[in-house]
Design brief:
The chain is of the alpha+beta class. It has one domain: Alpha-Beta Plaits (2-Layer Sandwich). The chain is 31% helix and 26% strand. The protein has a four-stranded antiparallel β-sheet with strand order 2-3-1-4. Helix 1 packs antiparallel against helix 3. The radius of gyration is 14 Å and the shape is globular. It starts with a strand and ends in a 13-residue tail after the last strand. The relative contact order is 0.29.
Length: 114
């Protein structure tokens, strides 16, 4: 069953943080897709919430299954490379993940995300 993995980067209470969105989009996420693609990661959406949100950035990844997510995360060498890369784009250290099965979805047939 299709699954999602959501990485949530919380906005620090003092409002001070570093998050290099360009690096995240151009380097980190493509690296993640290369590492986790063989385990069933198919696509991702990076979301930049408004200032009122408790999150700085959220990333929604689409996978073939929860089992694939778990196998990808268990790839110690690949996952370690991703963890080691975090310091290159943010100083937020308490990001948390959410794994879930997709129970329904809809996408307008001609809708395209740039």
């Amino acid at each position: 069953m299709p699954a999602i993995f959501i990485a949530c980067y919380p906005r620090p209470a003092d409002g001070k943080y570093r998050f290099d969105l360009e690096y995240y989009l151009k380097t980190h996420m493509p690296m993640q897709l290369r590492i986790h693609g063989p385990y069933g990661m198919r696509s991702y959406h990076v979301i930049k919430p408004t200032e009122e949100s408790p999150y700085v950035v959220q990333t929604v990844e689409f996978w073939d299954s929860v089992e694939g997510i778990e196998k990808g995360l268990a790839d110690s060498e690949g996952t370690q490379a991703l963890y080691d890369d975090i310091k290159n784009y943010t100083d937020i250290t308490n990001a948390f993940p959410i794994k879930a099965e997709v129970k329904g979805s809809y996408l307008e047939p001609n809708f395209q995300i740039q």
